[in-house]
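At your convenience, could you comment on the folded chain following this short note?
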Amino acid sequence: MSSLISVKNLSRYYGDFCAVNNISFELAAGDILGFLGPNGAGKSTTMQMLSGNLAPGSGEIRINGIDLLEQPKAAKAALGYLPETPPLYPEMTVNEYLDYCARLHRIKASDIINTRNHAIERCGLLDVQQRLIRNLSKGYQQRVGIAQAILHSPPVIILDEPTVGLDPIQIIEIRDLIRTLGKSHGIILCTHILPEVQAVCNRVQIINRGELVYSADMDALMQAQGGRYDITLAQTIDGNELATHKVFSEVETCANGRFIVSSTLPAEQLSRYIVEQGWGLLAFNEHRPSLEQIFIELTAGDNAVDTREAA
């Protein structure tokens, strides 16, 4: 797959404070990349640099093969951007606003109506296109914001916290929209809402203290702790006693006879061993840590992040 965004050795300082420290990554066509990090980790600074709103201290950004610093207009033309607060004009109708955005993108006058109608259809705005934006729900306003981001059919879309403040139904609708857009665009989803990433992304990156601490396919991330098992025993047994058995390299005691254990044995051999001990094996499952658990492990101690960098 072709690379739509290429970031190499990107850094940004605010005085003596390093907000983003020498990060590199790529976005391929068809990717929905979840860009995660705690508050103050460098997410917003990175997104501002990718969108051309903030100059990097050093490094290179190429969008659809175009150097953002050397050819900013051409590079930005390949980018659709929805900031956390959508750039809407509440006194306009949806149609008026999107027509205005089309002119900003220098879409030919003869193509504006068809272009606008296509974005309206893709974002599910047919029923509200004649209404004032100020009278729309937050969910529909987010849809309008996404419509302006995809209006000029950019290969790359950056969405910064697109579901903040939405109700559960609206969140599901926006997630469905993002999945649909991901079939024909490369998308970066910048958020601190972990279920959001788990629901829609196929890749994830975690940034902490300005540095990328993890980058992988979502499947690889969720399988990163292979060889761990979630077991429940009928017999009362102490975790320390369990740990004396050499088949276990690690034992974590939970409640009600439940343990999370690590072992180099295959699942079939380990379960057979447990049964042979007569402990009363009630449940045996591969332990798949949640994205939340992995995120906490990778960003432990982030409370010490310098608050001079807002996000």
Observations:
- The chain is about 30% helix and 30% strand.
